Write the structure tokens for this entry.
Amino acid sequence: MENKILGLHHITAIAADAQRNYDFYTKVLGLRMVKKTVNFDDPGTYHFYYGDEHGTPGTILTFFPWEHIMPGRAGTGMATEITYAVPEGSLEAWRERLARFNVSSEIKEHFGEPYLSFTDPDGLQLNLIVPKTPDTRAPWQTDEVKADIATRGFHSTTLSLKEIDATAGVLTDIFGYRLLAQEGNRYRFITDAVANAGIIDLLALPDGQRGHTGAGTNHHVAFRVANDAIQMEFREKILSSGLEITPKIDRDYFFSLYFREPGGVLFEIATDNPGFTVDEPLEKLGSSLKLPKQYEPARGEIEKVLPVLK
Ligand code: ZN
């Protein structure tokens, strides 16, 4: 496996109501819940993972639903748009589908690619885009969301920044991305290491308000590496660039490193190994509450405080 950054691994955001979040992502958008676990740093809170059938890196959107959290404000120093690839000709069907669930949406365009722009129930900005080169990843399908419209996984994410140069330097000099195109204050970076989920847009907003973490905002953006040996090579590169980075952390389904890039966005580097089938079979992914072993003795208490999903 190549010792490169392989595009996006997952994106994590914050929600308020767990049930509302679950309904929106599994029923309206038709994603698969591939893991229902808890926040390893705050086990009284769920950690939901939504993705394709396998929870393939590059398709995974995760949430911490904190029931009493105040709404956040998207702004500089965070990822402010999460964009999924969808098939050509599906945007109108999506617009009608979202409208049936009282979600208003608007068709826009960047770099010649049309996309549908809308927000989730907490105000998180989502886009469904039709890439110029069709995305060939196999979709997860539900009764209502079939392959003709289903999301294929991430196309890109947009980072809003007061100043893009230092962040661009991390992408190009450490992560192996290159500048692909510019449109106004939007700078598109891409890695050639993967065919999908390889785009990061940097939006230069010198007068932009700093983002404020809360419901409906991004928490961090995780980049993908094949395994933890390669991950540790990146740890050395990041340290030698003068940035601080955590030690390797075991997240049960992948190993993680976290660092704050100079523009303020929390970046993670996450591994493909061991993956989501480590504690339940593929056909059962997401169907029961999975706890890391340190919390298993407290399962009874944890289940009492977590909201019951219908
Ligand atoms: Zn993460």
